[in-house]
Amino acid sequence: MGSNILYKGPIGKEDVAFENSELLDGTQFTRRGSLGTVAMTKIPDFIKTHVSTINARYFNGGVLTEATITAAIGSIGTSPRRLYLEPGTWAIGNDLTIPSNVVLCPDNGAILTVATTKTLTINGPFDAGDYQVFSLTGTGAVAGLKKSRPEWFGFSASATGAANATAFNSAVTATSGGKLTITPGTYTLAGNITVPNAVTIIGYGAIFDWASDTTASRGMLVTASNVGIRGLKLDGPQHATYVGTQIGIYAYGADSAHYISNFTAEDCEITDFSSGIALKFVSGFKIHKNNIHDVVAIGSQVVCVLDGTITENRVKDIEGTTNGTLAYGISVTRVDGSTIASSPVSQNVVVAKNIIENVPNWEGLDNHSGHNITFSENIVNGCYFGIGVGPSEDENGDSMYAPINNIIAKNTLSSGVTDGSYSYGIVMVGAYEAPTVNEYATGEITGNIVKGYGAQATSTNGAIVFYNTRGLKVSGNDIQEPSPTGIHAYYNNAGFSVVDNTVLDAWSTAGTGRAIYANDGGNTGYIGSNTLLRGAKTATSVMATGVRIDSNSTDDIVLGDNYSEATNYLGGALTYASFGLRGGGNFILKDVSDYTKFSQASATPSDAFYLQFPAGIVITDVWWKLDTEFSGGTVSAATLEFGISGGDLDGFLPAENVFTGAAAGYKDSTIASRGELLYDATAGNTMPLHYFITTATNFTATLRLTGDTGDHLTAGQATIWVKGYRVK
Prior knowledge:
This protein is mostly beta strands. The chain has three helices and 68 strands. The protein starts with 29 loop residues before the first strand and ends with a strand.
C-alpha cells in the first residue's frame, strides 16, 4: 500500500475541510440501504456537493405538507439531488412543482394526497417501487411524469374494477409524453380506460379483465396524438351480443377537421369484445402483430384514416350474427350515407401479412371507397367472402364513391368449404346508380391464390368478380375449384385485362361451371394467355365452358390465346344456335396463334356461330379447320360455310363439302384456305372489304350436317376451330 494513505476508524468533520458556502447548518442527512433509513451522525453539517439524498422531513419542522417539500427544494437550489419522503400522508394542498434537478423518492408508505383542483407537477425523475404513492381527491392531479407505473396511483390486482379504472386513468394523465409500464398480472376493470394525452403504454404480461362488467361502454378510448399501446391483453365483457360501444381499443379524432396522429397498437391480445381495434379520423397509424379473437363484429376497422399500416396481425373467430351483418376481419372504410366532407374516404393504407380465420358470416378483408389501399400477402381462411372492395353511399343513399387504385396482390384465400355455399373470393365494385356509373373502381387483382370460393347456384358469383371498373388488371391468379365461375367480368368494366391466370375445375351442380365469364354489357377489354384446366373435381358441371361471353352493342372484347381443357372452349348467350355478340358488338379473335374451338351440341342439323364486327373493321386473314364427333346413326354429308349475312354480300363465300358418307364415330378434315376467300388486296377484288363489313351484321361460319337428324348429335358434338386476325 502507498505510504501516503492514512487509515482511520470513524471520521469527523475535523478530517474534512470545505468552504462555508458548501455547508448546510443544522440539517440532518440520511442514506437509504438494506437496513432502512440511517441517520448520518458521524459527519455533522455535511455538504451539498457530497450528499445525494436529502430527507424532506427535516425541513419546515417536519410537517408532512407541500410546504415542507417546498422548503427542502429551496435549500437544494439547482444542484442535482434526491429528495426522500418518509412514510406517512403528505398533504398537497396547493399546486406544487418538483424541478427537473430533483429526483423525488417516496418510500413505501409515503402517500402524496393531492387536493381537488390542485396539481402536483413532477418535472424531474421519479423513483418509487411497485406500491401506491399518490392519492387524488376530486380533480386533484399529478402531471409531468416521464416514466410511471399505474401502481403508484393505486392500481392493483386486488382492487375493484372501478378503482382500477380510476387509478389507471390518473396514471395516464400524469404521464403525458412519457412511458407507462404495467407490472405483469391480471387486473379487474370496470368502465372505460381513457387516454387523452400522448403516452406509451407497455403491458407485456398484463391482462385487463372486464369480464364482470358487461354493460355500456367498455375498453380503451384514445383521443390524443402520439399514443402507443404495446403488449397488453384486453379481455372484454362478452362476445355473445353486439354492443357498438364495447371496443377493445378505439382511437379517434373529434371530426374530419381534427385528426389525431401517430397511433400504434402492437403485440396486444384482444378478446371478448364486439370489436377489437377501431380507428376513426387518425393519420399515421400502425396496427402490428396483434392477436384479436372471439369478438362479435370486427377484428380491426379503420374509418376515414390516412397513411397507415395494418400488418402481421392474427384475427380469428369473428362470428357476427347473420350473413351480411356485423362480421369483418379487417375493414378500411368511411361512414356510409354521410357527406364526403364529414366522412372522407380512407387513403394510403397497407394491409399486409395478416392471418384472418373463421369469419363465417361476412368478409375477411374489406374496403369501401378507399384510395390507394393495398391488400397483400394476407392469408384468409374460412371466411364467407375473402376480400371485398366496393363503393359507399352519399348522404342521399346513392352509391357515389368507388374504391380507387386498390391493389389486391399475393393473398392466399381458402373458403374451407367444398359445397359452393360461400360467396366471392375477391370482388371489386365501383359506384353505380342505374343507369350511370358514378365512379369507376380502379386497381389490380394479381398473384392471388383463391380456393373454393363462389356460390355455385348463383350464375353471377365466382372466385374473382368485378363490375363498374376501369382499367382493372386481373393477372397471375391461381384459382382452384371456383363455383360456378373462376373470373367474372360482370358489367361496365372499361378497358379490363384478364391475363396469365390459371383456373382449375370451375364447377356447379345447379348451373354451368365456366372458367372465365363476361356478360351484361359495358365490357371492353382483353382476355388472353390464361390456362384453363380440368382436374379431379366431380360435380354435375365441371369446366363445361372455358370462356363464355354474353354481350351486346356496348361491348368490345378481344380474345387472345388461352389454353383450355374445358369441354367447350367458347360459349355465349346464343347457346347452340350461334356464338358471338348481339346487336353489333365486337368479339374478335386477335393475334391467335392456334385454332379457337367453338362447340355445337344440338340435335338440330344446322348450327352456326357468329363473329360480329362494328363498322370499319378490316379482316385480313381467316383460317379454319373442322372436326366432327358424333355417335349413332350416320352422317351423309357435312358442309362448312363461311359468309357475310345481313349485307350486300350475304353468301359470297362458297360452301365446301367436308366429307360424305361418314359412319358413326369420329372424322377429321382439315381445310387450309387463304384469306382471299374473304378479301385479298393483291387479288384485285373490285369490292373492298371495309364496304361490305360496314353494311353487314355478321360474319358467319355454319356447320351443316345432313343424314340422321334425330340421332347424329344426341350423344356427341360438332366443333369448329377458327383462327383469325383483325386490323382496325
